[in-house]
Amino acid sequence: MEIKFVGPKAIISKSGISFDNNKDDKSIYLNCVVQLIVALDHDYIEDKTYVYDNKIPNLSSDEIIKTIKKYTPKIEKTVEEWKEHTEKEVEHELDRASWNKILAPIEREVLIKNITMMKDYNVQRTINKSFYYAAVEILADIVKRDHIDYIIVPMLPEHTHVLHSLQGSMQKLKFPIDSKMEIYNKDGEFFSKLKVVTIGSGLNLV
Asked: What 3-state DSSP class applies to 103?
């Protein structure tokens, strides 16, 4: 089991295969969220702001999995469940295509081939997604546990995406945490700031 980039969501039809570029492969955000986990998970001194260098090299697939597994020992079982669910969905789509009487025989054949051809692609996207959301949940737990007041990151797409996911995950906690996003300019550079409703320390990821 590995994390491997495949691409955006595939749209499969009797006419061919296209891609929804608004539905990213979650693997592109995993490096960012795991580095945030590493940055945030340490002892804090009250009222101190911690600065973390976001320019360190990207983590490998093995390093990302190892870090997530440290916090979620049963992650492999969870990923396997996600994977099996997607495989069942693919089989269901193949059954539907096989019994579709509206399509001409050649159209039905093309649709079945397209679904089959994209099976591994879709399964890998699911694996990537399951690791990503597990990592976001870990991050939410750390923010809650350590009473983090805010996180500041460069206003880059991957960082902002992770903070939005974090907001959603914190809302799903047993005791939900409200938060808000702010964008501001400092010395000509733009940053995204996630402010959470809790008392604690802050992290500048710059």
From this structure: coil
Q: How many residues does the chain have?
A: 206
E strand or H helix at 194: strand 189-196
Task: Return the DSSP state at 121.
Answer: H
pTM flag (> 0.85): yes
Half-sphere exposure (CA, 13 Å, Cβ side) for 136?
26
Helical (H) or strand (E) element with 136? helix 119-145
In sequence order, the β-bridge partners of residue 40 are none
Which residues of the chain register pLDDT less than 50? 199-201, 206
Do 158 and 32 contact (CB within 8 A), yes or no? Answer: yes
Q: What is the pLDDT of residues 52-100, one digit of tens each?
A: 555 667 889 999 999 999 999 999 999 999 999 999 999 999 999 999 9
Please give the Cα distance from 149 to 137 (Å, whole number).
17
Judged by phi (left if over 0) then psi (alpha if -120 to 50, else beta), residue 11 lies in beta
At 155 the pLDDT is 86
Identify the helix (H) or strand (E) that includes residue 126.
Answer: helix 119-145
Domain coordinates in residue numbering, the chain:
9-205
